[in-house]
């Protein structure tokens, strides 16, 4: 039986104008990625300062410099419509890599913030 | 499967006109969407020699001052009634050599200063912002044949401020090359 699950991974941005690179390993039972979403505990930081490169199973999905605001959704978006469509992408080796860059654009004063990645996945339920 | 290519235009001079080309990858079947964004400031490495711009944090920008307020409105008008003119930065045109010709012609603004206008949910503790009420940043749907290898573009700056324009082009990748 196939069921939908949503995975969350966090990275911490502790210094202004810095880059953070992190890889996450997905379970073997994941069969497809349906969507991708970015949120933060400080939305203004992510909106004005964030950009990232994202690689899924060694394939570049979002190139370097892709602004985080293009992967965020506001409160008025239906919860089911908030994810960027990954078109049931196959998980491959199960690795998800993010290279996040914080860049000051003059509109916000830096404070440490958390970036959360959500992946909408399909999982094989062996239970 | 859709993929994106990003082109950044660095605006550093008043009345600057940037003429550019965007190369579309060979494995593109068609262009499916385009979105344009604006970021304040320009990386220091992109500032031409002899051009002076102010700023901090390794970036040059002149956006530290608050946007101008409409002088015809009282300064104390509540957010849901008051109106602030959006700052117009410039206009962008993208053109293909294919049948579609002009793909996109768009005005670029600093930000939506009136996102809370007419919204009575605004309180002293919560006011609508771009990231709280903005719709998901979906691309404009465009369909351009994959035979087009290059897009040509022109951007005209209208303000004496430095900033970066980001052009995101989504294309459908040939499934055989995935």
Summarize the structure.
The complex is a heterodimer of chains A (127) and B (178). By secondary structure, chain A is mostly beta strands.
Question: Can you tell me about this structure?
Answer:
The complex is a heterodimer of chains A (127) and B (178). Chain A has 127 residues and is mainly β. In chain A, 6% of the residues lie in helices and 57% in strands. Chain A has a 4-stranded antiparallel β-sheet with strand order 1-8-3-6. Chain A has a 4-stranded antiparallel β-sheet with strand order 2-7-4-5. Chain B is mainly beta and 178 residues long. Chain B has one helix at 130-133, and strands at 2-11, 17-23, 28-40, 42-43, 59-60, 88-96, 102-109, 140-145, 150-157, 163-173. The chains are: A mainly beta (127), B mainly beta (178). The interface between A and B is medium-sized, with 35 and 32 residues.
Query: Largest beta sheet of chain A, briefly?
Result: 4 strands, antiparallel
Alpha-carbon Rg of chain B, integer:
19 Å
- What is the succession of H and E elements of chain A? EEEHEEEEE
| Terminus-to-terminus distance of chain B | 8 Å
């Amino acid at each position: 039986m196939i069921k939908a699950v949503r995975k969350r991974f966090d990275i911490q941005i502790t210094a202004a104008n810095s880059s953070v690179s992190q890889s996450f390993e997905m379970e073997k039972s994941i069969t497809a990625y349906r969507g991708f979403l970015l949120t933060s505990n400080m939305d203004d930081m992510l909106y004005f300062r964030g950009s990232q490169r994202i690689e899924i199973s060694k394939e570049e999905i979002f190139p370097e410099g892709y602004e985080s605001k293009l992967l965020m959704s506001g409160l008025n978006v239906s919860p089911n419509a908030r994810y960027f469509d990954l078109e049931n992408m196959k998980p491959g080796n199960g690795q998800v890599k993010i290279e996040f860059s914080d860049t000051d654009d003059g509109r916000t004063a830096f404070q440490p913030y958390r970036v959360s990645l959500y992946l909408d996945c399909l999982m094989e339920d062996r239970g | 499967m859709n993929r994106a290519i990003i082109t950044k235009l660095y605006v550093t001079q008043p009345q600057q006109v940037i003429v550019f080309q965007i190369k579309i990858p060979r494995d593109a079947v068609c262009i499916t969407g385009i979105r344009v964004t604006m970021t304040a400031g320009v990386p220091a490495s992109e500032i031409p020699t002899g051009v002076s711009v102010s700023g901090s944090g390794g970036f040059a920008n002149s956006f530290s001052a608050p946007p101008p307020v409409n002088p015809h409105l009282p300064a104390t008008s509540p957010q849901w009634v008051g109106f602030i003119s959006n700052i117009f930065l410039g206009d962008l045109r993208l053109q293909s050599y294919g049948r579609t010709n002009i793909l996109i012609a768009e005005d670029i603004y600093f930000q939506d200063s009136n996102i809370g206008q007419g919204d009575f949910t605004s309180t002293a503790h919560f006011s609508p912002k771009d990231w709280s009420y903005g719709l998901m940043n979906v691309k404009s749907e465009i369909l351009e044949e994959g035979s087009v290898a290059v897009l040509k573009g022109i951007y005209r700056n209208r303000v004496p401020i430095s900033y970066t324009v980001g052009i995101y082009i989504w294309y459908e990748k040939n499934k055989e090359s995935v």
